[in-house]
Amino acid sequence: MSESTQPPVVMPGANAIQPRAALWAITLVAVALSLFQLYSAGIQPLGLFYQRSIHLALVMLLAFLMFPVFGPDRKRGALGWALDAVCFAGALITGGYLVFFLDEIINRAGFWNQTDIIVAMIATVTVLEASRRAVGFGMTIIGLIAIIYALAGPRGELPWLGEWLPGILSHRGYTLDRVAGQLYLGQEGIFGLPLGVAATYIFIFVLFGAFLESTGAGRFFIDMAYAATGRQRGGPAKAAVLASAGMGSISGSAIANVVTTGAFTIPLMKKLGYKPKQAGGIEAAASTGGQIMPPLMGAGAFLIAEYTNTPYLEIVKISILPAIMYFATVYLFVHIIALKQGMQGMPRSELPKMRQVMKDGWHFLLPLGVLVWLLVLNLSPMRVGYYAVITMVAVAVIRYALWYFFVAPGQGQPVTAERTKAVVWSGLTKLVEGLELGARNAVAVSMACAVAGIIVGVVGLTGLGLKFSSMMLAFSGGNLVLALVMVLLASLVLGMGLPVTASYIVLIVLVGPALTNEFGVPLLIAHLVVFWYSQDSNVTPPIALAGFAGAAIAGSKPMETGFQAWKFAKGLYLIPLFMVFNPEIIIGGPVPVVIWNAIIAIFALCAFAASLEGYLFTRMNWLARIAIGAAIFGVFYPSFWTELTGVVVMAAVIGANYLASRREGHPVTS
């Protein structure tokens, strides 16, 4: 049947109208990609370039199928399919050439022949086009700028352009052959570390999250949060915070968190009395926190582990306290707003019961338990992800089989050959859906990592990283706080056009050496700071993507909701500062010092929320708010007596606020 006579189908996730043949092709490629990843993760590990090249080829095929060349709202037509055929060929050449000729390429030891260079050019163009479709123009444009920069210089293909570069950014310039070879055939390029992490650790955990999502784990976490907090003041908002923390363990996107949990929590927040912009902002801030919440932290935990050569489990352990600090801040914001507006909790009759929630969904905790247990045993994260996926599927099958054979007959649903056949078919369909969803969810991050590899390759080739470090040192005048402000601004600008993962990779390559070598920030803390700041674009106008997603659900104005999200997510700015000036909470130290720093940090963040809202137990006057603000700076200063003075001032102001509320007769309970 031709495309014109084929009934169009709206494909979830890509927002594109697709003919049925294209949907079948998407399913086929997606399932093949997921099965390949499972095979290489748990059965037969492959060599570095084999794994990455096959992964990239399949991901690009999927990207070209999912995202039509002229956009999601237009049919491909004859021209579109012709262009896609060229792109399909480019994807197959990109991956297939390395698979079939890897030994010969290695034996040439950098003396590449003309075929190598031609294939490298095809691969680079194909990657940029797949990125344009799956990630957006921003990432592609930055990749193109990086390539043009590499060609600019007296010995490059664009010597005239090198004359326009400022002195600190100038370099010798490189030929097209040299740049193409670096990007495709070198270990710092398209197939570099970012794509390597995406093709191994990230994909398998995204697949695990997809199986949890497709089997109902998202609803389980939301119900559990409601059962725990629903009766408190502002219960739905507090449930949004907890549910987003839970969803953060299975989702790789703040926007995905917003649309998943927000569909339930935002309407209930509005019903309880939160303004639409507040409801959308709270959900956006909480969902952004899901990206810094162990064990997955989006894709960040794996990338940080690889870049710093630190065990993955160690990254998870040191990230728990900062994540708790962040969610404590958002949680207190929610509580204070509920107190200010006199909100009450939801009636018990409208809430799920914790016992019933656990009875219906306890099996979702088993795969998470297996995941944590295997990580503690120091298995490879890739192998851990494989066993977690297998456990998830096995638990789902066993639980349904027990119900089907032992519970259903007692409810008037006897076991028959016809019903058994239907049940088996339904199970296989669910399995394919999980495999397909995992592959689809991984397309954007894999393509972002591939283009990030282009940028990293150019930075390494031209020495831009060292030059950027010199610029950073010059502009900040050697002041660490100013340097961190520059990192924050750079992350905001990059975040306007790049996904969080790509923003982190690009930024750490540029500013990481300066933070560690020039300013003395420990390597691990430098990476965590940059990773946290890279989340900023989700909640900071003018491009607050998570905030805009929350606004769409809440029916509020996008910019107003973005500013609310920005306010609630202030922990993204303060907690990295605290890491830098109190490194013991990350890299360890004497137990009393670590405990003291953790306590005063949480205390300061809670005081900050109260100061910003002008309310805790009752309203605060401007003098009290200014005093708390000054005390917070003292707590963040790396001196025990300054910290102690700040804590005393905050405690005095909060104590006075409590006594004032008692005199006014305000309730102070939850």
Describe this structure in words.
With 670 residues, this protein is an all-alpha fold. Among the domains are: 1-111; 589-670, no CATH class. Helix content is 74%, strand content 1%. The chain is built from 29 helices and two strands. The chain has helices at 20-42, 48-66, 77-108, 114-134, 137-151, 159-162, 176-185, 193-214, 217-229, 235-247, 254-272, 276-289, 300-308, 312-340, 354-361, 365-376, 381-407, 417-462, 464-476, 480-495, 500-518, 523-534, 545-554, 558-568, 571-581, 584-587, 591-613, 622-636, 640-664, and strands spanning 9-11, 16-18. The protein has a two-stranded antiparallel ribbon with strand order 1-2. A hairpin with a 4-residue loop joins strand 1 (9-11) and strand 2 (16-18). Helix 8 packs parallel to helix 17, helix 22 (523-534) packs antiparallel against helix 25 and helix 28 (622-636) runs antiparallel to helix 29. The longest helix is centred in the middle third of the chain and has 46 residues, at 417-462.
